[in-house]
Write a structure and sequence with these properties.
mainly alpha, 17 helices, globular, ABC_transptr_permease_BtuC, transmembrane helix
Length: 369
């Protein structure tokens, strides 16, 4: 499957038509702008916190680790905080933001719906249900699971839940209909409602301690970030971010409609399967590690589309970079705004994302008038 994705996504039958359909790309310019902004956000986030680190101290900490200098005057405590606590958290925010952003952009292109995101195919709800299931039964009863994944039992089961729920939605769309995008959307809504009801039932049956764990997991947090979780998420998000832009040409043609895209050589079944698999990999791993983080995959593609145009190559790459920027800044704010406590990042993204999303919709309506 990955080898297929790396190739041209579709064999297009009309080269002249394809050339006319390709929109002027500003991918290179956009990548430089957002890449530079992301680097600045990473540096800012790494230096900001309860223990402040200056730029000069940050340079000395990194230079000492890389062997550029032999000694430093920076306190050892700051070096430990940077390498053990802050840098893994920043890296995890970058990865999860990229996974959520590019998944949202690709699913909006697939469904041709500007309010589509990973919840429509059951990734988030499936992960939540299986995580609640583990919390209710207590991981200590899963001895084999404990021996294999240790303290990451909930994350592992949540990822499995995301994958299984998405697979169920996909298979159900083929059984109940023609397997088209509309059928997939309707099946996703139905399964999400059922899974949400099951999650609600188990939450209702939970005791106080379990209810607290469930609530905090669903609110989302990067507080448990370490190098193990970063390395666990990296391959899944990396595959999604690397291969998804190869589908941009087919997603551009899909804007014309399913029948028109099919007549130009786009294999809709293959395209749908690739987008769903890649989106599930990135979002499933992100939700499994950090819990539910909303609005990143919904708002970020709108920002990129407004700023750099609708070409999906630019949109997908830009959404990955912008998603990393948004989540890095949101995480920095979440751990500093109520210090020494920490505000769950899911609350912050919802509070900031909702009015911004409404503003985007208002601006789009105003421009159409």
């Amino acid at each position: 499957m990955l080898a297929e994705i790396a190739k041209e996504p579709d064999q297009l039958t009309n080269a002249a038509s394809v050339k006319r359909l390709q929109l002027p790309s500003s991918t290179g310019k956009m990548s430089w702008i957002l890449g530079s902004l992301l680097f600045a956000c990473v540096v800012f986030s790494a230096c900001t916190g309860a223990l402040s680190i200056s730029l000069a101290e940050l340079w000395e900490i990194i230079a000492l680790k890389l062997g550029f200098i032999q000694e430093t005057r920076v306190e050892e405590q700051k070096s430990i905080v940077f390498w053990v606590i802050r840098l893994p958290r920043v890296c995890l925010a970058v990865l999860i933001g990229a996974g959520l952003g590019i998944a949202g952009a690709s699913l909006q292109g697939l469904f041709r719906n500007p309010i589509a995101d990973s919840t429509l195919i059951g990734v988030t709800s499936g992960a939540s249900l299986f995580a609640v299931f583990v919390i209710m039964l207590n991981v200590k009863y899963f001895s084999a699971l404990n021996e294999w994944v240790g303290v990451y039992g909930i994350s592992f089961v949540a990822f499995v839940g995301a994958a299984l729920t998405t697979l169920l939605v996909y298979q159900l769309s083929k059984i109940t209909g023609d397997g088209g995008v509309t059928t997939l959307l309707l099946c996703g809504i139905a399964i999400n409602a059922f899974v949400g009801a099951m999650t609600g039932l188990m939450t209702y049956l939970a005791d106080d301690a379990q209810l607290r764990s469930i609530t905090f997991w669903n609110l989302g947090s990067l507080g448990g970030a370490n190098w193990t979780s970063v390395l666990a998420v990296l391959p899944f998000v990396g595959i999604s971010v690397f291969f998804m832009p190869y589908l941009s040409k087919a997603l551009n043609l899909l804007v014309l409609g399913e029948s028109q895209a099919g007549s130009l050589g786009v294999n809709l079944k293959v395209l749908k399967r690739k987008v769903i698999i890649l989106a599930t990999l990135g979002v499933g791993a992100s939700v499994a590690v950090a819990g539910t983080i909303g609005f990143v995959g919904l708002v970020v593609p709108h920002i990129i589309r407004t700023a750099f145009g609708p070409n999906h190559k630019t949109l997908l790459i830009g959404s990955a970079l912008a998603g990393s920027i948004v989540l890095t800044l949101a995480d920095t704010l979440s751990r500093t705004i109520v210090a020494p406590s920490e505000l769950p990042i899911g609350i912050l993204t919802a509070l900031l994302g909702t009015p911004f999303f409404l503003y985007i919709l208002w601006e789009q309506k105003r421009k159409r008038l």
